[in-house]
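Protein fold
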Amino acid sequence: MATTQLTPAQIQHFDDEGFLVLRANEHNLIDPTVLQQWTNEVKALPREHGKWMPYDEITADGSRQLMRTENFVNYHAGFASLLNGAEMNAILKQLTRDDMLLFKDKINYKLPGGNGFGAHLDAPAYDHIGQIEHTTANLAVDAATVENGCVEVVPRSHRMDVELANGGAISAKWEAAHEWMPVELQPGDLLIFGSHLAHRSKKNDTTKSRASIYATYHMKSDGDDLKEKYYIDRRENFPPDHERIPGKDYELGVKRYAFSAPFTSIDDNKAGVQVV
């Protein structure tokens, strides 16, 4: 596959605005129908200990449903080839000026009735591994629209002093004072943004799912085993629902990871914990 060559204008847009959208026919990384097939395969994985990490959410009507799967790349050859592949790295390197290594992988399913994700920065959830810049490649599995809760960003916020209220959660005052831009995507489209860009999403008010792949990378110059360190810490301090040990204190994990995405509570599986 030929490497996608970004234009100087695209690179400048990423530098200035903090994000870049590449349509599926611009990057040609994967057929959108294959992306949907692979996502369904990960979604159907059984709940096992010590491997991929499925997390649940509680919807507004009290229903429990799958919200996310993390750490799945090592268990799916297709996604491993795509997200660790030379083509993806070549695109990211043009924006970051360095070779990139996968740091974190997750699929947010945004099922019908799925909750929104509060306004936040990603960086504070990663700083315990290293206070460095991370870059996320968000591949749309399904169309992302305003109606089903697409990502919204504040352009240029990666260069702003964003006021935080709790961990990486953005204060209500700062959120209300800034203009948020919806980023609508079609299946296969790619949104790339850094870990200091303010972003959020609303709930899915439609009858169809709005799944997205989020592959977060770090520069190779920052180390070569950061993904392993991240998931060792996350599994110990904020494991998926089925791996939680009754009576164990997960306060550190809640503080470290719990500030943006809807999640079940540690104690009684009721809504109330937010996880990035």
